[in-house]
Amino acid sequence: MGFNLFGFGESIGIDLGTATVLVYIKGQGIVVREPSVVTVDKNTNTILAVGEQARLMMGKTPGNIMAIRPLREGVISDYEMTERMLKHFIQAAIGKHPFMKPTIAVCVPSAVTAVERRAVEDATRQAGARKVYIIEEPIAAAIGAGIDISRACGSMVVDIGGGTTDIAVISLGGTVVSTSLKIAGDNFDEAIVRYMRKKHNVLIGERSAEQLKMNIGTTFERTMSVSMDIRGRNLITGLPKNITVNSEEMLEALSESAIAITEAVHAVLEKTPPELAADISDRGIVMTGGGSLLYGLDKLIAKRTGINTMIAEDAVSCVAIGTGKFIEFMDGSEKRDKRRKKREKPSKKEEKKDI
């Protein structure tokens, strides 16, 4: 991982996700991609691990050690741990002793309250930011997906993250219609855990549910069935049990959550002005975020809306890339303003001449 030796005036974009944190540095791209997990010793309040190392400890820690996910449903649920986690990732990106504090842009779900937005801003500043910009996730996702949001043309983005699904119609650099659902990647995992308990009397952990989702997760009928072996705890005997799960079962487990997302997309389209709806019909719907990779979700949305639905290139990174490009633009805009003011400011010789 490369970084500016002195961290002089770095411009950083952060996708502060419920499941994953991505850090983008101007000129370098994404330099940090880690799970949003912290393990802490409850007795001493000492952080033992952050990111991937902490994720590997989930469900395996003794009583005095907690694996914490400090963000829930797209917003901060544990302020102190969020701040400490952010500080760790910022230092991982630019070093522990930067010559100058960085300017940071952080994204938030479109439906956050003013209090929740302020909490993200304050935590980022406390973690070491000199200046903080807040950008809404659908805007960042659109920029990262390569959509020119400045045009007078309607674009629809469906960003499915870990904690929230943000659906927005964007035109002329702003959001025209939007909604945010607390149904996303985490919800899919929980649905799989519930299904395994109900159908097979087997309890599986979050990580096992995530593996099932990523490998054989299905929201639209596949042409060929796929299966996977998973291990859990038999709720009747209390003993470990191996079980083979197939994609048809995953379709059954995930259909309720998937349909809720497609109905939300349909509802946003119903509220969209006719001219912008026509643009979206021509240009299609763009999906971003890790949840967009769930098999068949794009097909399900296309079937419900009748509009071509496509998954963006590098969908998982779109929000981080868009946040990074946004901070690059803001950074450049600030510099241009400073140069303009400098040119407009009269010199001392001119001031004396006027006198």
Features:
355 residues, alpha+beta, Nucleotidyltransferase, domain 5, Actin, Chain A, domain 4, 3 domains, five-stranded mixed beta sheet, flat, disordered N terminus
Radius of gyration of CA atoms, rounded to a whole number: 23 Å
Strand content: 25-35%
User: Uncertain segments of ≥5 residues (pLDDT<50)?
Assistant: 1-8
Characterize the overall form. Answer: flat
The structural domain count equals: 3
Strand arrangement within the widest β-sheet reads 3-2-1-9-10
Oligomer: single chain
Tell me how many strands there are. Answer: 18
Per CATH, the superfamily of the largest domain is ATPase, nucleotide binding domain
Number of helical stretches of at least 4 residues: 11
SSE run: EEEEEHEEEHEHEHEEEHEHEEHHEHEHH
Describe the structure in your own words.
With about 350 residues, the protein is of the alpha+beta class. It folds into three domains: about 160 residues, ATPase, nucleotide binding domain (Nucleotidyltransferase, domain 5, 2-Layer Sandwich), CATH 3.30.420; about 100 residues, Nucleotidyltransferase, domain 5, CATH 3.30.420; about 70 residues, ATPase, substrate binding domain, subdomain 4 (Actin, Chain A, domain 4, Alpha-Beta Complex), CATH 3.90.640. The protein contains eleven helices and 18 strands. The chain has a five-stranded mixed sheet, sandwiched between helices. The protein has a five-stranded mixed sheet with strand order 13-12-11-17-18, with helices on both faces. A hairpin with a 4-residue loop joins strand 11 and strand 12. The N terminus is likely disordered.
